[in-house]
Prior knowledge:
The protein is an alpha/beta fold. It folds into two domains: 2-190 and 317-338, 3-Layer(aba) Sandwich (Rossmann fold), CATH 3.40.50.150; 193-315, DNA Methylase, Chain A, domain 2 (Alpha-Beta Complex), CATH 3.90.120. Helices cover 32% and strands 13% of the residues. The protein has twelve helices and seven strands. It has helices spanning 13-21, 33-42, 53-56, 61-64, 100-111, 131-142, 173-176, 212-218, 232-239, 287-293, 306-315, 319-338, and strands at 2-7, 23-29, 48-49, 74-77, 115-121, 145-153, 164-172. A seven-stranded mixed β-sheet has the order 3-2-1-4-5-7-6, sandwiched between helices. Strand 2, helix 2 (33-42) and strand 3 form a beta-alpha-beta unit. Helix 1 packs across helix 12 (319-338). The chain is elongated and about 65 Å long. The two termini are 16 Å apart. The relative contact order is 0.16.
Amino acid sequence: MFKSIELFAGAGGLALGLEQAGFEHIGLVEFDKSAANTLMLNRPQWKVLCEDIAITTQKDLEKEFDIRKGELDLLSGGAPCQSFSYAGKRLGLQDVRGTMFYHYATFLEKLQPKMFLFENVRGLLTHDNGKTYQTILSIFEEQGYHALHAVLNAWDYGVPQKRERLITIGIRNDLANKCKFSFPKKHEYKPIMRDVKLDVNPSKDECERYSEYKKEIFALVPPGGYWRDIAPEIAKEYMKACWCMGGGRTGILRRIGLDEPSLAVLTSPGMKQTDRCHPIEVRPFSYRENARIQTFPDTWEFWGKLSEKYKQVGNAVPVNLAKEIGFAIKKTLEVINYG
């Protein structure tokens, strides 16, 4: 088994996928109590640190995780996207002090894992005119890593959902000339909503409900349709100020069809501009249905209030996407470790 540590672990989508690919997690760090409880509920044997990562990085990490510098196979996780006070100072790691990424980079500096997996939203590529990501890449290089990146769509990897993630893979410089990393190949079959188990009238403990007014409006929208598929006067009354906005506004009154993938699962089902109505029943998707779209097994339980469960599921990396990336990393590590 290859050993890994995960930062910003959330409810475990990335960690579960990597586990399925053959990684043994020797530590996970997550600040949100509900998400950390979800991890501990499903994997009591995992060492989960529910604390501010700023506290974790101040520790002796070799002692904390019982591993010597250079021995860890993989550091994984995705720090929240934040602006850096770059200003061309070229101070390296000090440029990003005070951001979540600083702590990810500090783990690299202190533990020097053989490889790392850094996942984030696609928008990080263009954040602050590309300066944010260029700063990140320069710090990876400063810490002694050769980095590659690609934008992967989860729909290409066994996930019934259009969801793009920026995946950055790093290989420590002293190992980079011994191996080659290739991003996973796309699957031939791309799953759709018809492949997902859907519930019949789930309870209010598992699924939010629309107001009677919103329910009446959504009943007019055909599966696969949106606001343009109903009478303009009804759509205008519902959309109010949004009616005058530019763009296609294709997320408003959007009802997902059975013969298409879901749009990206979100952290809350109740936002007007990002509606995701169930294809058969007039309601939002339940948190469990969202979890299935994210390819969590039904045996994976979520801890907390309903709103917290929706948030945990929406923030997760799809399990099947994480697994495919994990298999690709594992192939590279096998060459590094065993030749």
